[in-house]
Automatic annotation (TrEMBL):
Positions with a binding annotation for substrate: R349
Record PTM N6-(pyridoxal phosphate)lysine, positions in chain: K200
Catalytic class of the enzyme: transferase
Name of the protein in its database record: Serine--glyoxylate aminotransferase
Length: 393
């Protein structure tokens, strides 16, 4: 019957949310707990410390009952008032989204425009800031890993550009699809606010997000008179013992405690190396599909900017990715990401972040080939072989 549930395990290769490991699910499968109890406060504090280790920061951290959009808004609401100006580096759909939020909060947004396939020219950030003698630009905003295009930004270069321009602008970075998948060093890279979320590299359900906050940013927030409440860092500081606004989501913390344990058992460097390996194999497969010039190809055109957590694959001219994704999920139970905004139908995305290993990736790549055949998408054969060669080397 057409409504029969597909057999076997679903292969889930969306670039967020990601696979929730059984260990995390089991850790969450327990009775509720008083969120003011000593037992929970200890779990909360351990999780705070763990997230700070993943962010590589010794500075502030605030967590919210909200998806990543909440942490985006927390950063903007605490630091800026209507009429302030920020500079955002265009990367794709998510940089546009953060910019739109800023505009809706009354913040003036200037953009360093960029070709989404090539990535932004970081020297333009320094040039723009050097011209801003009155220091009207309060901050530079960027998305470390643009989940829509599968491209990264060199954050330490951006920090250097700000410093070389001798400009006091804060640096805000969205690490929602890079954290715990790709190297991230909040303090060493001079990031003032890091926006993160639960549902990608941290392998948790969606619904909790957080901001790492530098002492410099906290100082700016203290002086900011703009109205805010739910995300107000100073108010949260007063909410001892947890610094949480409202009821703390205890089950999210049970899961977080386990996922932090998993990350630290593997070791963050090994986690990053695993993601690099899986990403390289994915790119090898896509390059093979594109070999005769008629198949899908890598969307990103700057080899040193290609993401290790998500690969965006551009469809051949005139071929939509929608039927391919539909065949993949309906017939083969493989979930692939779609194109966002102007890339809708033009690309599909292979998420390879979070709890993923070689067999899971190879299953995804082989099934993507199968779905391309079924859906009549032209491609050169040999993608899976190329991925195996890449993994074996
Ligand atoms: N920023 C990036 C880079 C993202 O990938 C996403 C979601 O995929 C968001 C922001 C928005 O986060 P959320 O969907 O959790 O609100």
């Amino acid at each position: 019957p057409s409504n029969a549930k597909p057999r076997g395990r679903q292969f889930f290769n969306n670039p967020g949310p990601t696979n929730i490991p059984d260990r995390v699910l089991r850790a969450m499968d327990r009775p509720v707990m008083d969120f003011m109890s000593d037992e929970f406060v200890a779990i909360h504090h351990a999780c705070h410390a763990g997230v700070k280790r993943v962010l590589k920061t010794d500075q502030g951290l605030y967590m919210y009952n909200a998806s990543g959009h909440g942490a985006w808004e927390a950063a903007l609401a605490n630091l800026f008032a209507a009429g302030d100006t920020v500079l955002i580096i265009e990367t794709g759909y998510f940089s546009l989204g953060w910019a739109e939020m800023a505009v809706n909060l009354g913040i003036k947004v200037e953009t360093i425009a960029a070709d989404w396939r090539k990535g932004a020219d970081v020297s333009k950030v320094g040039e723009r800031l050097a011209k801003d003698k009155a220091h009207e630009i309060k901050a530079v905003l960027c998305v470390h890993n643009e989940t829509a295009t599968g491209m990264v930004l060199p954050l330490s270069d951006i920090r250097r550009a700000i410093d070389e321009a001798k400009h006091p602008a804060l640096l805000l970075s969205d690490t929602i699809s890079s954290l715990a998948s790709i190297e991230y060093k909040m303090d060493a890279w001079g990031i003032d606010v890091t926006v993160g979320g639960s549902q990608k590299g941290l392998m948790l359900p969606t619904g909790m997000s957080f901001t790492g906050v530098s002492n410099k940013a906290l100082d700016v927030a203290r002086k900011n008179k703009a109205p805010r409440h739910y995300f107000h860092w100073e108010l949260m500081n007063g909410r001892a013992p947890q610094k949480f606004m409202g009821t703390a989501p205890v089950h999210m913390f049970f899961g977080l405690q386990e996922s932090l344990k998993m990350l630290e058992e593997e070791g963050l460097d090994a986690v990053f190396a695993r993601h690099a390996r899986l990403a390289e194999a994915t790119r090898a497969a896509v390059r093979a599909w594109a070999a005769d010039g008629k198949g899908p190809q890598l969307y990103g055109q700057s080899p040193d900017r290609l993401s290790n957590s998500v690969t965006t694959v551009m469809m051949p001219e005139g071929v939509s990715s929608d039927p391919l994704r539909k065949v993949a999920i309906d017939r083969y139970n493989l979930s692939l990401g779609g194109g966002l905004g102007p890339l809708m139908g033009k690309v599909f995305r292979i998420g390879h972040m979070g709890d993923l290993n070689e067999p899971m990736l190879l299953g995804c790549l082989a099934t993507t080939e199968l779905a391309m055949k079924t859906a009549g998408v032209p491609f050169s054969p040999g993608g899976v072989d190329a991925a195996i060669d890449s993994l074996a080397s």
